[in-house]
Design goal:
By secondary structure, the protein is mainly alpha-helical. The chain folds into 2 domains: 3-74, MazG-like (Helix Hairpins), CATH 1.10.287.1080; 79-105, no CATH class. It is 79% helix and 0% strand. It has helices at residues 3-14, 22-28, 31-51, 54-74, 79-89, 94-104. The radius of gyration is 16 Å and the shape is globular.
Length: 105
């Protein structure tokens, strides 16, 4: 499955009834709850990475990607917009890009 396919599946499930779809239920609970789930999954992925638990890192990474795409859906931000930002950043070195962000803040 690609991220684009996951995004499409999330869009379909978001349109369903919250009684029938976890995605719809999560979005109905609001951005705060959806964003909280991203934080939880990110923390679990970090713990799996630090402890060297490969299988758990794979599972938590899947959860993290899913929940991040749910947050993007709730915020009405298409994955393509995020990918375009990543594409723009690859035009320069990572260190130069990071330095430019620090200068803007």
């Amino acid at each position: 499955m690609t991220l684009e396919e996951l995004e499409a599946r999330i869009a379909i499930r978001a349109a369903a009834s919250p009684e029938e779809s976890y995605t719809a239920k999560l979005i109905a609970r609001g951005m705060k709850k959806a964003a909280q789930k991203v934080g939880e999954e990110a923390t679990e992925a970090v713990i799996a990475a630090v402890t060297g638990d490969r299988a758990e890192l794979v599972k938590e990474s899947a959860d993290l990607l899913y929940h991040l795409l749910v947050v993007l859906k709730a915020a009405d931000i298409p994955l393509g917009e995020v990918m375009a930002e990543l594409d723009a950043r690859t035009a320069q070195s990572g260190l130069a890009e990071k330095a430019s962000r620090s200068e803007k803040q």
